[in-house]
Amino acid sequence: MFEKLLSFSRHNKMALLALMDALLLPLALWCAVFLRLGGYWDPKLNPHLWIFMVPPLWAIPIFIKLGLYRAVLKYLDDKIIVTVFLGVTLSVLVLQGVIQMFAIWAMPRAAIIIFWVFAMAYIGGSRFLLRGLVRRIDVVDAPREHVIIYGAGRAGVQLMLALQAGREYRPMAFVDDNPELRRRTFRGVAVHAPEELPQLLKDTAAKCILLAMPSVSRGRQREILESLERLRVPIKRLPGMADLVSGEARVEELKEVEIEDLLGRDPVPPKAELLARNIKGRVVMVTGAGGSIGSELVRQIARNQPSRIVLFELSEYALYAIDQELAQLAPAIPRTPILGSVIDYDRLSQVMRAFKVETVYHAAAYKHVPMVEHNPVAGIVNNAFGTDTTARAAEDCGVDTFVLISTDKAVRPTNVMGATKRLAELTLQTRHARGSRTRFVMVRFGNVLGSSGSVVPLFRRQIKAGGPITLTHADITRYFMTIPEAAQLVIQAGAMGDGGDVFVLDMGEPVKIIDLARRMVHLSGLEVKDERHPKGDIEIRITGLRPGEKLYEELLIGDNVLATDHARIMRAQEYHLSADEMASLLQRLRDACQRLDAPAAFALMQQAVHEFRAAEATQDWVTLQG
User: Fold this and answer.
1) Distance between CA 379 and CA 324 in Å, rounded?
2) What is the pLDDT of residue 250?
3) 149, 341, 446, 552: which sits with the fewest CB atoms below 10 Å from its CB?
């Protein structure tokens, strides 16, 4: 029957609540008088029995005005007490006025005070009783997944309230590192120590742990995740505090644990003067503006008040996407999306002169190692000649600063992609050495988390598909950095050098990729299938190193490195070629590329980049068919 009542329309439910109050208020007044008279009835009240029936006549309109009937029973909170207090108090005052007006002196004065107490108890208590019944029926009708919340602070309590009001999760316990919170209870949910987690998971049959610590440092989050890994339980987390404050996310919107939480480190606050030096009030151009790094550079640049952003991109869709995003992010900043190629000198010069570009961030490049390895001519043309062409246009158009986004694969490269990026660095160093008025700066760093083609989204897709996870070598290691941190450091490094500088970003400690894969499996609540766990869920399959792939990456060619004013930016001191030697090599390399002679171009790359140790398996796919 109660479930049928819950299926009524909103207006019908409000009418039923008003009817219930119309019965409870006379009952409260009757009980108050009966209690005051000690269980006996005063015959003097017989002519005034109507007074017991009239309180709803003014009480219910007062309750309507205060919004008591607009409150949804399931989501009632403690604020309803204030509404009931005001409504009942006003109703009692009106009742006292009616008694005085009609001279009902037989009514005991103390009964009015008792009536206030009973009305508070009946009206308020009925709401909480109904709320409990509604929530109990909701739990029975829609069984929810049992979860444990890690973090009993404000965010954790808000998450618990949101989940209790929802239909997906049922919070069974809190876990918190703070000893002062232990054994406290919030709405029936107790706080426990982290050491109790294994037993709690058994006792509560919880299927997931929810991290509710949006303000904790990334380093601390990593420590907590490492401690939870052994439990083999899926982990989800609250959005970051910035997203919660900005309104972009809500407390109940849980996310999968991001790879940044597993590997990330606490970022060093950027220096505002370095961020703004080449950007504020300037016309800034970003090549490859729609790529992983290019698009993040655009976002960071927009926050530093340029006079205009020129978005230069070969891919029409990528250009459209970043242009639309920038329109939402910074509508007040003039922006110009330009379709074009970095090997088109005339187009580059036309754009730079038309908009009087002052700073260029050159992020356009082919970066996927296996793809470039088997398309070496295209890689050389785009990465090496594209950089040289863009730099030449920048020089001729009077650009003040040119910043090249380089890579750790340019250090002692074993693949064509790395060699083309090192050659790109060398072309800029040669331009600086011969006295260019444009300040050329190179910034070298490792892998960024979440970029296109990154191993992380690949592993996530493979885990969701049930495996196997494919890994090229059990001992392979890589450096990782978040895209926003990398972009901020690139901008700051670009503001430092005098010209010809190669800046190296501090990438932290290298990560063993097989360990990363295992942790991603474990934090998904699964087990790795191997010799020790033959009945595991996800297999890690070793496929062998790809052509040109290195077991580990380096950031420096030599040991000659200097500190800078920024804790995570270093200056490398490395060789460069003379102008004549570089001109001769580039001409011969250009001729080979124009002839589409991949073997000759490949041999010339080894001459230009002295430390290039090419992989034996490197072959041009088109040449193989010839």
Assistant:
1) 29
2) 52
3) 552
The helix (H) or strand (E) run that includes residue 538 is strand 538-542
- Which of the residues 367, 409, 529, 550 is marked catalytic? 409
Alpha helices in 333-467 (DSSP H): 345-355, 369-373, 376-379, 386-396, 416-433, 455-464
Q: Give me the helix-helix angle, 598-608 and 579-594, nearest 10°.
A: 170
DSSP secondary structure code for residue 45 in this structure? G
Please check whether residue 308 is in contact with residue 326, taking contact to mean a CB–CB distance below 8 angstroms. no
Tell me the sheet residues that pair with 529: 539
Which residues lie across from 406 on neighbouring strands?
444
The DSSP bridge partners found for residue 175 are 150, 192
Secondary structure (3-state) at 286: strand
What type of residue sits at position 428? L
440 CA to centre of own chain: 33
Are 432 and 442 contacting, i.e. CB atoms less than 8 angstroms apart? Answer: no
> Is 409 part of the annotated catalytic residue set?
yes
The answer to whether 347 touches 341, Cβ cutoff 8 Å, is: yes
Classify burial at 293, counting beta carbons within 10 Å of its beta carbon; exposed 0-12, middle 13-18, buried 19 or more.
buried
Phi, psi of 191 (to 5 degrees): -100, 130
pLDDT averaged per 10 residues in sequence order, the chain, 626 residues: 52 77 88 81 79 87 80 61 84 87 83 88 80 61 78 85 77 89 81 90 88 78 82 78 48 62 68 89 96 93 95 96 94 96 97 97 92 91 96 96 91 89 94 92 79 73 88 83 84 85 80 84 82 86 79 61 77 80 92 91 88 71 68
How many CA atoms are closer than 13 Å to the CA of 276, on its beta-carbon side? 8
Tokens of 245: 């404050």
Question: How far apart (Å, rounded) are the C-alpha atoms in residues 330 and 36?
Answer: 70
- Helix 579-594 crosses helix 416-433 at what angle (to 10 degrees)? 140
Structure tokens of 272? 């505002």
Cα 406 from Cα 424, distance rounded (Å): 8
For 624, the enclosing helix (H) or strand (E) is helix 621-625
- The Cα angle at residue 540 between residues 467 and 616, in degrees rounded to 5: 115
DSSP string covering 55-71, please?
HHHHHHHHHHHHTTTTS
Alpha carbon dihedral 146, 152, 158, 163, in 10-degree steps, equals 0
Residue 452: Cβ within 10 Å count: 12
Task: Answer for the pair 156, 249: CB distance below 8 angstroms, yes or no.
Answer: no
Angle separating helix axes 386-396 and 345-355, nearest 10 degrees: 40
DSSP class of 196:
G
